[in-house]
Design goal:
The chain is an alpha/beta fold. It has helices at about 10-20, 25-35, 50-55, 75-90, 145-155, 180-185, and strands at about 40-45, 65-70, 95, 100-105, 110-115, 130-135, 160. Strands 3-4-5-2-1-6-7 form a 7-stranded mixed β-sheet, covered by helices on one side. The longest helix has 17 residues, at about 75-90.
Length: about 180
Amino acid sequence: MSATGFTTDWLEERYRFDLAARSGNFSDLFIQHLGTKKSYHLLDLGAGIGSNTKYFIDKINADQYWYLLEIDQQLIDYGKVTLHKFLTENEFEVRGNEIQLVARKDYTIHIRYIRDSIFNIKPTQYLAFDGILGNALLDVFTIVQLQELFDHLKSTHAPKLFSIIYQNMEWLDEDIDNPYFVAKY
């Protein structure tokens, strides 16, 4: 089990279910709002083993610079291995080292893991990114943490995609804010 409480096997197995549950409409809107550029700088908050990168890498037809922010070193190490495998299985030419993978198809993909906490990023640092994703955060952050993060993200006009999908969710009545979120889901 990783330092954040996830097993790498579980995250890898979960990918196919997450893939099936993703909203193509939201993903298409995210890409549409990126606009037309020759390259994109994309930030994945709480990147885990790189599921967002795997999902979007073929959908964005331009050079891509992915910054995968993750606090858990075990997930980073496993993510590097699974991303390398994913890229080679999908006919990308992969060159790289421990820190950065570079893949070429019709465009160049740079993937770099950054080990740090989301809360160490200053609001102005978000301005460097053309798109920000955070799909794995909504189910592990408290409302206070989410509010702090969203307050920081106000500084950028870059498209953001944060989503969570639950079916047959069971809520434990431990948080005074739960009724609000149960109603939203």
